[in-house]
Amino acid sequence: MAKVSYKKFRMKPRITLVSDEKFFGRGVSELLRLIDKSGTMQEACKIMDMSYSKAWKIIKRVEKELGCKIITAKSGGVKGGTTILTDEARDLVSRFDSMEEDVAKYTERAFKKYFL
Amino acid sequence: MAKVSYKKFRMKPRITLVSDEKFFGRGVSELLRLIDKSGTMQEACKIMDMSYSKAWKIIKRVEKELGCKIITAKSGGVKGGTTILTDEARDLVSRFDSMEEDVAKYTERAFKKYFL
Q: Which of A24, A105, A107, B22 satisfies CB 3.0 to 4.6 Å to A17 for a cystine?
């Protein structure tokens, strides 16, 4: 058997929150971060090259699964009303990002163990 | 902040072997297992509801990345020629499956840590 070297490859991990179907992963986490940063769904969708209707559908799905709002309107301020994340959404994004980083580190170690 | 319970959810992990692009994951591993079991690509494609041309493209891509054949013809026998996996393919599938199981177990523990 020819010895295959796996040194030039890497193993990419991906985690997704699932109920009966997948409903929250890297993409949604990124979308929420961008909404929070820009203050508008429109701007976040533009950056992600995603349609407003798709983003809205994704957000409604997450809200249905969690049983609470994940974005909310913040009225007033210099720029007028903006869209911000609820505490529940911040909490979810924070947990998800931490877990994702943790699993990524483990996957890197596991790749060395099983392939290198 | 309303307390969201994540008990009814699970976190699904997925690992994929990557060079410049993804080229080997759960789907390809399953395809190879089915080819080996049935002895023909046709039968494996049928079970996976995948076109022969797509399966062939996937296999060629993996062979190009690894620099070796992953399926080979075995001539003769009662049923005539069959298609089997090369030792290199068996080795890859075995490593991948073991690592996938390992990462899945870790992800389950990590989910408890970060979400429950």
A: A24
Contact predicate A81/A74, CB 8 Å: yes
Min Cα distance B66 → chain A (Å) is 6
**How many angstroms separate the CA atoms of A53 and A3, rounded?**
50
Residue in this structure with the two tokens 């290198």, named with its chain if needed: A116
Q: Compare CB distances from B98 to A9, A106, A114 and report the shortest one's residue.
A: A114
Task: Please tell me what DSSP assigns to residue A52.
Answer: H
Whether B12 is in a domain gets the answer no
Provide the percentage of residues in chain A whose pLDDT is more than 70.
94
**Per-residue pLDDT at A12 exceeds 90:** yes
Q: What is the pTM of this model?
A: 0.91
SS3 B116: coil
Which residue type, as a one-letter code, is found at position A67? G
- Quote the domain boundaries for residue B37: 24-115
- Tell me, what CATH number does B93's domain have? 1.10.10.10
The share of chain B scoring above pLDDT 70, in percent, equals 94
Asked if the structure places residue B46 within a domain, the reply is: yes
A11: nearest CB among B2, B4, B17: B17
Calculate the CA A95 to chain-centre distance.
Answer: 11
- Dist. CA A59–CA A86, nearest whole Å: 12
Instruction: Assess if residue A16 is contained within a domain.
Output: no
Number of domains in chain B: 1
Look at residue B95 and tell me if it is in a domain: yes
